[in-house]
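Many introductory courses stop at the sequence. We go one step further.
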Amino acid sequence: MNYVLIPGAWHGAWVWQPVARRLREAGHRALPLTMPGVDGDPSGVTLADAVAFTADTITRLGLRDVVLVAHSWGGYPATGAALRVPDRVAEVVYVSAVVPRAGVSQADELAPEMGAFVRGMIQSGGTVPIDLGSVQSVLLPGEPEPVQRLVAELLVPHPGAYFLDSLDEAVLPVPARYVLAEDDIALARPGAEFAARLGVEPILVPGGHETLITHPDEVAAAILKTAG
């Protein structure tokens, strides 16, 4: 199988590398992506650009039997790409990710107060930054401080339009599964609610939102299990 791995907000392809290594060791191709504007100029980048980048990468490389694996905000470009090239996608696996609804943005999924806060940051600076305190309290609570600080240094501000844009269509034309980190407190809504949008029960893995880093063995095993 060909696994195309999409990171969440503030992250690049690096966050998937531990899981990707295990998928390759199991005999599969694993391709972590960094979305446009995350490793460069974020101005003018839209969700449509992230969707097109993901779908075009699959097409350009001639990939088929693709399993799109999305973390967190990455559920948006993964869903959009599956809709763009359904003949090349076998399955979408959401790992503690947002399962989008048509016309509903990431900012809309947040609690009203947090959504307003995020929109204010975007209006003033064009991006959504993240600080060490948020990493320590939300993304990696309870992990060793050196790990928290390292991850915080790797994270970059997320393009604002990625939080404000939505998909015109969100009903997947391919099968989907949901893998949920059992201690995740960073999702905009409970993971079980996102899984219910797919009509499935979540497959639980240990850890919090950054389980890709803290528990790559279990995450890789869950992804491989969902592929049947």
